[in-house]
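Quick illustration for those who missed Monday's session on complexes.
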Amino acid sequence: RVLVAGCKGQIGVPLVHAICEVVGKENVIAADISDKKVALPCQYEQLDVTDGSRYDKIVSEHKIDYIVHLAAILSALGERFPDRATSVNVTGCINALNIARERKSRIFVPSTIAVFGGDHFPKIQTPVDTVLQPTTIYGISKVFNEMIGTYYHNKFGVDFRSIRYPGVISSEKYDFNGTTDYSTEIFFHALEKGQYKCWLAPKTNLPMIYIDDCIKGTIQFLKADGAQLKRKVYNMAGISFNPEELAASIQKMIPSFKVEYEPDFRQKIADSWPKSIDDSESKKDWGWSYDVTVDDLAKKILDGIDPQYKQGV
Ligand code: NAD
Ligand code: VAH
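Prediction with (3R)-3-hydroxy-L-norvaline bound:
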């Protein structure tokens, strides 16, 4: 049975649906701290992941043998509330790992390309093993997650695994707490207002992936035989592009769309991250592959957006 902790976010909602399809909804428990009303196909529990005893109670009562620990405070929100980011991202992860160790459950904790940072790593085709000197509290906490998860595997035999996701783009509105989230917000502004003020500069290249592909890859990785995996943490490259290129693809479909650029504190965060990623280890070890163009991606996103947002176009 699978527990998805942090189930109401951008990745949680579609991942819960996908896991239910694989193992059956009676075998999935979704949990989150948020009161937000979200339609979920399975049983739901209220959970603050920093509350270790409540977390453990849910895992033991539901006989969970796979914890999918998504709960986190993302980069932009984390810079506004660093103490909260440390508490949720570090304490929450330690709680999850201790429970996995105690209850002998497998555990997946996603990581991020935000574990890279600063100037001492290759920003183009960033390899999986390189200097990790992130400058955000989000990146710092995720390096900690990767390292302590690997430690729990080596020391206690916990089946810990992690993927460093690139920025994830959706066709849904959610709380835009990440630096890469301009790439989803831009579509809703294009449809509803015909214009967008982007918080990143036009040539800011970042690695990105469409949510459906991210979920597909995650399911593939969750199911992968542990013996196949030569490492605990893998890169996921997605496709690299910048706001100007994405805007140009949107303009092919909505020609009247206008974009302005007004970089804010998120520019510094984006500038500290890789421009593109090398995920050859993922391809080799667990069969990951991804090949799209920015135009394909923009079309997929727009096609996936609810028609209620498309009335003015
Ligand atoms: P999100 O911000 O959309 O959702 C996070 C969820 O965690 C929310 O539903 C929130 O209510 C919940 N949460 C926050 N604090 C909690 C707490 N104390 N207890 C329980 N739940 C809590 O984030 P997301 O985009 O869905 O990200 C999910 C995971 O994927 C995170 O670990 C994130 O680091 C990772 N990731 C996301 C991206 C991306 O672009 N979305 C990229 C790389 C990695
Ligand atoms: C963020 N989308 O911007 C997240 C992500 C790749 C970065 O982890 O914070």
